[in-house]
């Protein structure tokens, strides 16, 4: 998923006995696996947490256009250019579904943009890393979309109906994105030594930031416990990270690449890999706005919004004029 | 018109024509893709990427056919990535820089209006392969024109600021529209063989669509002064070299690599 460290409202997870009847009925519906829909009663904390999570997810999709868009004009063949255009267009589409899902909770898209532009709302740390070669485009599809899928598949069963439904379509498209990323790299590792070196370099740079996408260990987090009780979150960060590593390492082997982790080792007893920890200090710096591309990414989004003000105002003014003409026409007719 | 493939026509003229169609689509598609992630609304990001995608798809068809009929083993990719600016045959209009979003939209509208007429005429080309590409592309371009026309109207007749920007875009781009309708020997060859329309023959329809749209947009049609030209014969603006330097970077830096 593209949402990290989403703060949950609520100091601790309440037991059913401690809840007022309305909240208790709500929790019982969630426990029974029923979906919550927009018009229904929900605790304010549930609503706020979802807005935070879905908007962060949406912002990640649109900021995510930038590192990949960086290579559309330099894509090496017409087919690769077309595929990358289609992929980035999908990401914008995901942003659109997610903003719509968040809007059902009583916040407007413009308000969410405002929160992004002023730095109040976050987007995934991963998009603050630069795309330096064409292999990075493959690595983003393979690793970043791969990590996103790990998190998004369980969200299809999330308790909030509009979010769960948006996720069904998004997951289908993300699987395609991951395959195309892997395909970019598979082609390159069979190419020249320079191409293969480019792929290894991309893995070296993207491996750790990809593991950071799941967020720090949250086994002891109150936020995560509440989100799990509400079925907004289904697995711990460490569970998902483990799953990602177990899935990805054999793929790296297949590509003939070396995962840049000296501690990486198959553990027969647990049936998974042991692996090292990302540099969490770096992670918190990136989250705090000090990553390699934070200023550029947010600057690009703000500029797009500010430069486009006249465009949006022009369309709104035309709509008003057209409505006035229609009303005047009706009055005259 | 007969449907036999490649009726008697000068092959160089036909190659020239196919490059012109393919290069227009390629360079405009490239320009649009520069907007990715920077458009003034999310819906516009999606629509621009979609239009660029259609144009890159059309490029593959036109340049693929050009390479095939040239018979020297060049693929669409070879033609896109390994020619220098003097060998490109797109009109100057499509290589104009994006400018603000208004200029991008105006460039799109002026081109779309020509592009649709052209493709509709090509649907009855004597060459079935050309007619087939035109059939597919015309459906896509009809949508491009609907969209760009609608936005030109809404922004022309929007606020004073949006009106000013659209007027400036129109005035800046107008001298680049003439080239679309200036025929040369290759065009005459093709028209005589029933493969494609004479460029001049598309002018009346274009004038009609553009005139009506500008009126509705409350924009004044500029006077037809001196028209810039050169792209169709490989004499481009200074912008073209930079477009190619960016677009062709990987193919040039890693010769012979496959991607």
Count of discrete domains of chain B: 1
Shape of chain B: globular
CATH architecture of chain A: Up-down Bundle
User: Which strands sit side by side, in order, in the main sheet of chain A?
Assistant: 1-2
Count of helical stretches of chain B: 11
CATH superfamily of chain B: Ferritin, core subunit, four-helix bundle
pLDDT average of chain B, as an integer? Answer: 96
Tell me the distance between the termini of chain B.
41 Å
CATH architecture of chain B: Up-down Bundle
Order of helices and strands of chain A: HHHHHHHHHHEEHHH
Based on DSSP secondary structure assignment, what is the total number of beta strands of chain B?
0
Q: Determine the structural class of chain A based on helices, strands and strand pairing.
A: mainly alpha
Pfam family, one (chain B): PaaA_PaaC
GO biological process, one term (chain B): phenylacetate catabolic process
Protein name (chain B): Phenylacetic acid degradation protein
Organism (chain B): Sinorhizobium glycinis
Q: Can you summarize this structure?
A:
Chain A is mainly α. Helices cover 65% and strands 2% of the residues of chain A. In chain A, helix 2 (44-63) runs antiparallel to helix 4.
Question: Can you describe this structure?
Answer:
- The complex is a heterodimer of chains A (333) and B (259).
- Chain A is mainly α.
- Chain A has a single domain, classed as Ferritin, core subunit, four-helix bundle (Ferritin).
- In chain A, 65% of the residues lie in helices and 2% in strands.
- A two-stranded antiparallel sheet of chain A has the order 1-2.
- The longest helix of chain A is centred in the middle third of the chain and has 29 residues.
- In chain A, 44% of the residues are buried.
- Helices cover 63% and strands 0% of the residues of chain B.
- In chain B, 49% of the residues are buried.
- The longest helix of chain B has 29 residues.
- Chain B is globular and about 55 Å long.
- Chain B is mainly α.
- Chains A and B meet through helix 3, helix 4, helix 7, helix 12 and helix 13 of A and helix 1, helix 2, helix 3, helix 6 and helix 7 of B.
- Chain A: This is Phenylacetate-CoA oxygenase.
